[in-house]
Amino acid sequence: MACDTVEAVEVTQLDVTLWQQGIRRIREAIGAEHVIDDSEEVAYRSRVIIPSARKPSAFLYPKTVAQIQEIVGIANELKLPLWPVSRGKNWGYGSATPCQDGALVMVLERLDRILEVNTEMAYAVVEPGVTYRQLHQHLLDQNIDLWLDCTDGPADASVTGNALERGIGETPYGDHFENICGLEVVLPNGRLMRTGGGPMEGYQSWNCHKWGVGPYLEGLFSQSNYGIVTKMGVWLMPKPEKFVSCLFELENEEDFPQLIDAMRRLQFNGAIRSKVHLINDFIMFAVVDKYPHHLLQGGKCLSRETQLQLRKEYNISSWTFAAGIYGSRDQVRAGMRLAKQELAPLGRLQFISDGKIKTIQQLTRWLQNLGKRSLGATPAKKIGWQLFKKPLSIMEFLPHVHAIEKGVPSDYFVKHAYYKNRRPKPEGKDIDPARDHCGLIWLGPIIPLNGRQVTEVLDMVRPLYEKYQFEFSTALMVANPRSVIALMSIFFDKQNPEETARAEQLYFEMGRVTQAAGYQQYRTSTAYMDRILEPAPEFRSLASQIKTALDPNNIMAPGKYGVGL
Amino acid sequence: MACDTVEAVEVTQLDVTLWQQGIRRIREAIGAEHVIDDSEEVAYRSRVIIPSARKPSAFLYPKTVAQIQEIVGIANELKLPLWPVSRGKNWGYGSATPCQDGALVMVLERLDRILEVNTEMAYAVVEPGVTYRQLHQHLLDQNIDLWLDCTDGPADASVTGNALERGIGETPYGDHFENICGLEVVLPNGRLMRTGGGPMEGYQSWNCHKWGVGPYLEGLFSQSNYGIVTKMGVWLMPKPEKFVSCLFELENEEDFPQLIDAMRRLQFNGAIRSKVHLINDFIMFAVVDKYPHHLLQGGKCLSRETQLQLRKEYNISSWTFAAGIYGSRDQVRAGMRLAKQELAPLGRLQFISDGKIKTIQQLTRWLQNLGKRSLGATPAKKIGWQLFKKPLSIMEFLPHVHAIEKGVPSDYFVKHAYYKNRRPKPEGKDIDPARDHCGLIWLGPIIPLNGRQVTEVLDMVRPLYEKYQFEFSTALMVANPRSVIALMSIFFDKQNPEETARAEQLYFEMGRVTQAAGYQQYRTSTAYMDRILEPAPEFRSLASQIKTALDPNNIMAPGKYGVGL
After folding, report:
1. Residue from the list A331, A518, A562 with its beta carbon closest to the beta carbon of B198
2. Do the chains contact at B203 and A331, CB–CB below 8 Å?
3. ipTM of the complex, rounded to two decimals
4. A3-13 and A16-30 helices, crossing angle to 10°
5. pLDDT number for residue B493
6. What are phi and psi of B445, to 5 degrees?
7. A216 lies in the same domain as A142
């Protein structure tokens, strides 16, 4: 990426003198080392895994609420656009980049204090820089019997950022926006306020009663540009007496609509309250392995025959899901019985206890070591197959799935962003799909949780994957008993411009087609924000009226979710 | 009430010519018979059961969304304040009256269509005039296996009105605002919009996914004055395989904090997901009987000795609650076991099935009839006591409690507003506490659901009841596992001005004291609205900024919840 590009952006979008003045004053306010405007470094920090993104003009790293307020003051005075992010790990949606060129990205990672964990009332109050990994470690270190809910995204993502973007996790607390309670916000005018209609200090129910008194305003700070959240209450789950996970594999692809209807009933009756992710075969391949370029046979994507062959090789089904069942021993037993009734007729259902997972983990590791040290990989794999009837890569996957249903963040799943990347998946925690030129973008229409409509949407987008020659890859994330997000993934080789362009075309066409059919997205990427509210002019007009009133200079994330364009 | 008062108000608050012009034009728009400005009739329709209220200048009854929009247009043009209510049955909080004199009350009772019941996805879409009774009857008539959640307030209250005021019902769906999904709103500028960021028509997930896309704006239309809701999606509960209710009576008053902590654990572990109302002795007396004026012994309120004597006579405890347990047979059994573990050490816990309720009902009726027809009341009561160890009035109460936990609206509980009224409680459905000069006002601070803080608040307000010589009457409504509303009731004789004034003094002092201690109210009366946001100037300022932007003429419920004063 040429450094000049970034400079050019600054000149066209912003008044250079004002921008330079702003950078100088922000340097004075927060310390020069916390302002990055070197164009090469800015370009590096702006890398994304989506096909294309807008270019910020600088990165700012304030440490305190007062510093944020000062930056907001300067931005208002000089009419400079800010783009606040918590950690910037919004991978499949644009990472840390703004939706308009030139914005000053304000990263809140240095506000990283866990301000309170209330063990009795089961909540935490965190700053926006606090990550899943950090909060989880804190609960472990302090021996607190509370579980958080994390996503299967990066462990170093912000708890706050994900909740405000309305991310979906794994456990019964997986509707992240539903489980936040109490926000402190710097408004576009620089003033600090707290939601809930109570006093700033000593408001007894601030983190316990979501709606407060007076208009419920917390929603204003979600998927929006009306303020910068500086503190957030988040509800945590008291550790249940008993936990098992379950793994389900659909036997016949044609029974898919029945599976969806069964899932709705299980969500309604509470047998399964976790935010189940039903993944199709290609998502499973992406999670457990690398893309088999050698099987392309000259085409641009894998053939149907290859797909079916791979299913056999991995011994996986068209659709797989894991779920958690939580409660007292009796409650878990009751949940398991209901799950069996609904699911056993449709496929293979296994319940997995902590003990079973330990055994699987030990055997898998032992076989892998054996393979590396003495036996050789192929014989080890064969023994594994004899034991599990699955490849070792799938067995390796299970403990991560089991753990994440208990709110244990994992770096494992993020690696699936490396699916089409030419380098091997990274080991350990050194995972940075943006740095490593991975290509992945998500489009997540919301669908009522019934077999008919979910099938309708999948049938609508599958031909588009074929048209643009990508493998159809989707994870259905149950959001609540009535709705599911069909998270369409487009994996592409970012170092291949033709493929990247095709991915982008598929993405926009999928968005157009699903929106035209009345399916709106649960969240969108920076690339789609200018179009996301097109079907809702009256809604957008209301949101814009509020925007103008609160942020007359339009300095706060202009254009985010189509507001303040 | 002198008719002149109302006239006087109009003159001082509004420009008479504009007001007359407005009434004339609204008559043309919606039909003369749907505009009530006869001052006597206006005064009659403005009756309240709270100590004092503001006086509207007219009542308007539009039938359609277009008529509402027309009225809003006229109001904007002539700067006339509107006060929209759904049914106006907001009894303990001010009924249909506005919080400022002179407003034109717009009653939406004629928009009373149930637009859709989706049996698969378990929701209904209703207009604001639809009542609990009506929706319940509709589900019965259509043989739909869905249960609604109603409050223990009037069966003829609006489903929409209660949800927007954030009322709390009884079942797991009892957080009414939590269970709404999809609003259509007439904005103060007269334009129609729908929440959720999708198209106006054919938005597939409008009633299934609460947050939609873009900023979540539904909260703006709750406890506020930013618009008039004309359609609302409301989630309904699929009828569970098994249901039992349970009744608990605390043995030792000193164990009250332990009871609260047990309730929190039962809510967390899901054994009890219903919105339990823990009622103290005086609430129970008010529900099952009339105030024993003859026991006053010259004082203004009943003595501690009388209170204890009454507890013995009714054989009731200091605290009682009923709850529902829902699920499969196994799930209900698991819930019952957990409830027993937590509650049996603290008092008497009974589980009540539909069958048991039928028997109780039959026996009670049989004894009552026997008493009336042949045996005489006293011997019948004696037999009842032998059978149940409770007075018949308490046995009569049980079936209503059991039914309401299944979402069956009841007129039974509202009658407790007649507690201090000199006339007998009305029979059947002819219940109108406002018409009948009942006196009752509620103050509902939100408290974290733990024994320590609930005790703190009760200890804070109990001396105020003593100071103002009222019986301490409170129902603790569990809102979620982390919070409870202490609904303080002040029963007073509205026909006694001295007592009414004392009730008002107690009310405001209780509000002051609890707010000063950091306990905000979950909802407030029209009498308190100007003070409710005093502890939250920054919050109020944000709410006011939005108000000014959306409603520059301040025509929409000015002053509601302290906004647009």
Report:
1. A518
2. no
3. 0.96
4. 110
5. 96
6. -65, 145
7. yes
Closest of B150, B458, B132, B494 to residue B283, by C-alpha: B458
Would you say A126 and A207 are in contact if contact means Cβ atoms under 8 Å apart? Answer: no
A249 CB neighbour count, 10 Å cutoff: 18
| Domain count along chain B | 4
How close is the nearest chain A Cα to the Cα of B186, in Å? 11
Predicted confidence band of residue A465 (pLDDT cuts 50, 70, 90) = very high
Sign of CA dihedral A155, A160, A164, A169: positive
- B161 shares a domain with B77: no
| Cut 0.90: pTM above it | yes
CA–CA gap between residue B46 and residue B57 (Å, rounded): 10
Q: How far apart are CA B145 and CA B139, in angstroms?
A: 7
The reply to whether B100 and B122 lie within a common domain is no
The sign of the CA dihedral A299, A301, A304, A309 is positive
CA distance A564 to A140: 43
The reply to whether B293 falls in a domain is: yes
Please tell me whether residues B84 and B37 are part of one structural domain: yes
Q: Are residues A200 and A231 in the same domain?
A: yes
Question: Which residue among A110, A145, A166 closes a domain?
Answer: A110
| Cα B176 to Cα B84: distance, rounded to the nearest angstrom | 19
User: Which residue of B lies nearest to A563 if distances are taken between CA atoms?
Assistant: B214
Tell me, yes or no, whether A440 lies in a domain. no
Say what the pLDDT of residue B13 is.
63
Is residue A254 one of the residues assigned to a domain?
Answer: yes
* First-to-last C-alpha distance (Å) of chain A: 26
Shared domain check, A356 and A247: yes
CB contact (8 A) between residue A205 and residue B328: no
pLDDT confidence of A427, banded at 50, 70, 90?
Answer: confident
pLDDT in tens, B63-101: 999 999 999 999 999 999 999 999 999 999 999 999 999
B102 and B125 together in one domain: no
Residue B310 domain-assigned? Answer: no
CA distances from A291 to A50, A319, A493 (A): 18, 19, 10
Q: Between residues 488 and 527 of chain B, which touch chain A (CB distance below 8 Å)?
A: 517-524
**Chain A residues inside the 8 Å CB shell of B205:** 446-448, 483, 519-520
What pLDDT does A9 receive? 45
Of the residues B383, B418, B453, the one at which a domain ends:
B418
> If you ran DSSP here, which 8-state letter would residue B47 be given?
-
Gap between the Cα atoms of A479 and B304, Å rounded: 52
3-state SS class at A66: helix
Same domain for B97 and B143? no
The answer for B 281-340 residues in CB contact with A (under 8 A) is 327-328, 330-331, 333-335, 337-338
Domain span at residue A157 reads: 114-238
Q: Does B124 touch chain A (CB under 8 A)?
A: no
The pair of structure tokens assigned to A71 is 């930056």
